[in-house]
Amino acid sequence: MSARKSLPTVTALGGGHGLSASLSALRRITDRLTAVVTVADDGGSSGRLRDEFDCLPPGDLRMALAALCGDDAEGRQWADVLQSRFAGDGPMAGHAVGNLLILGLWQHLDDPVAGLDQVAALLRTRGRVLPMSLSPLTIEADVIGLDPLAPDEVCTLSGQATVAKTRAEVQKIRLVPADPAACPQALEAVGQSDYVVLGPGSWFTSVLPHLMVPELARAISQCPGRRILTLNIEPADETDGFTASRHIELLAEHAPGLRLDTVVADAAFNDEHLAGFVASLGAELVLADVRMRDGSARHDPLRLAAVYADVMGL
């Protein structure tokens, strides 16, 4: 068997900076890689384009493409171009160059998947990028603590940008529409994977939404490959103050039928109940030092790649 054929086929699910972290690690150990990306972003450049053109929000898709660019000078230059934004105070200000490239190809080809594949071919990425659904979605969240005069009252927040920034305690999320169709190519990728990697990322707006798409949740649960969950380095923003165990508990509450094989956590983000919660999902807990060497709350791609390689037996 050739070295290429021995590489694992991996599908990574998430959005934003968390998915970029897992892709930056995974592309170092395989190029048989597919990213499945959330499509509920409604803020910033993505939100403006979504409103104006009734399209999928391109921002998280762009970030995934940039993460899959090569480590050579050309690859890094393309990644920088994709992520760069127009300056000034005119109508183009704030738009990411990559968002407009993606949107232009979507309009030209009239096919979101074909457009993303075209961008990937142009950039010579080490993997494919797909949306989790072919229709833009909205995240709704039930929260408590939004009104200081009624701290126990349950309120509803709507929109990814709003939910991501809230300081209220999120109890539960859902998608609108409630039963969106999954991208067929994403379902195929999950079904053909040796490993499915979920997380890290914003728990309520990047990780859990994949499990709110019924077809995709079933594909993840029924896939023949092994399922890996990657926890964040530490809680932040929408899960500020949550323990590692609470992250696992939320996953189980939103996807009660999901079983995992491995949960990867930074050694410092651990608590006395985590191993038990992980075991309840049928998984093994792998604790490792995967934080950036500068101490920031980000995953180090090389350290995370080494952990993934060990889990996959490479």
Automatic annotation (TrEMBL):
Superkingdom, natural source: Bacteria
Gene3D superfamilies for this protein: CofD-like domains
Localization (cell): Cytoplasm
InterPro entries the UniProt entry points to: CofD (IPR002882), CofD-like_dom_sf (IPR038136), Gluconeogen_factor (IPR010119)
Keywords from the named record: Cytoplasm
Principal place of residence: cytoplasm
Keyword Cytoplasm: yes
Pfam family, one: CofD
Job of this protein: Required for morphogenesis under gluconeogenic growth conditions.
Family to which this protein belongs: Belongs to the gluconeogenesis factor family.
Protein name: Putative gluconeogenesis factor
Organism: Luteococcus peritonei
This protein's encoding gene: yvcK
